[in-house]
């Protein structure tokens, strides 16, 4: 059927213009296709031929560029919420794993082998210890605010930008706190970094997770453009 490609071509055009989580993108495209097919069926019932019915349905739906902009906002907002949920769950988990590993192998900070840390070292450790919970609180609040905004703010891109901003600040704060602690440790006793293989592995895992979350936050920003 010659006219069958009209809706297919339109949906394919939308597909090339959209960037985001694949499952959410497929859901939006499927919704668009079903809406177009329903509209085309109404035009066929009104006496239009298949080709004209699909073309009128596409015309009524709107230019692909305009629809894509609206859909892209939804994709960005959905990915931003996904990123915040990942931060809310993963950062406290890796922090707990690291603390549990430290507790099992050494107990308190004073029990670490080697040189006793100087007084200036402990604030770095305390900031790193509290950062995971501060980030979890901030992202949890951001998720709540974004959900409330989604009911009152028509622009999904604004919601996505807010999610991306909180995600970037949260992840960068965690990376900065952990990096500062690592640099402080190297400054007074480099051997402490590898004194415990399990603790070193837990630190590597924490950095991998944080940089993965930073990548997700950066993608949220890109999806807003």
From TrEMBL:
UniProt keywords, alphabetically: Membrane, Transmembrane, Transmembrane helix
Please give the superkingdom of this protein's source.
Bacteria
What stretches pass through the bilayer? 87-105, 131-150, 162-188, 194-215
Q: Does the keyword Transmembrane apply?
A: yes
Q: What is this protein called?
A: DUF2637 domain-containing protein
Q: Which organism is it from?
A: Kibdelosporangium banguiense
């Amino acid at each position: 059927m010659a006219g069958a490609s009209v809706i297919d071509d339109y949906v394919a055009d939308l597909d090339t213009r959209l960037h985001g989580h694949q499952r959410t993108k497929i859901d939006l495209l499927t919704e668009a296709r079903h809406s177009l097919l329903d509209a085309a069926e109404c035009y066929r019932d009104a006496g239009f031929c298949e080709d004209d019915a699909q073309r009128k349905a596409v015309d009524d739906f709107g230019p692909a560029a305009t629809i894509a902009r609206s859909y892209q906002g939804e994709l960005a907002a959905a990915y931003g919420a996904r990123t915040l949920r990942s931060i809310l769950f993963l950062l406290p988990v890796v922090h707990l794993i690291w603390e549990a590993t430290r507790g099992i192998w050494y107990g308190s900070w004073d029990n670490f082998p080697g040189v006793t840390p100087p007084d200036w070292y402990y604030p770095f450790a305390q900031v790193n210890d509290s950062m995971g919970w501060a980030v979890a609180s901030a992202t949890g609040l951001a998720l709540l605010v974004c959900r409330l905004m989604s009911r009152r703010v028509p622009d999904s891109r604004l919601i996505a930008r807010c999610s991306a901003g909180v995600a970037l600040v949260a992840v960068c704060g965690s990376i900065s706190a952990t990096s500062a602690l690592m640099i402080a440790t190297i400054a007074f006793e480099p051997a402490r970094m590898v004194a415990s293989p399990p603790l070193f592995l837990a630190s590597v895992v924490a950095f991998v997770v944080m940089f993965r979350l930073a990548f997700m936050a950066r993608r949220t920003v890109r999806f807003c453009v």
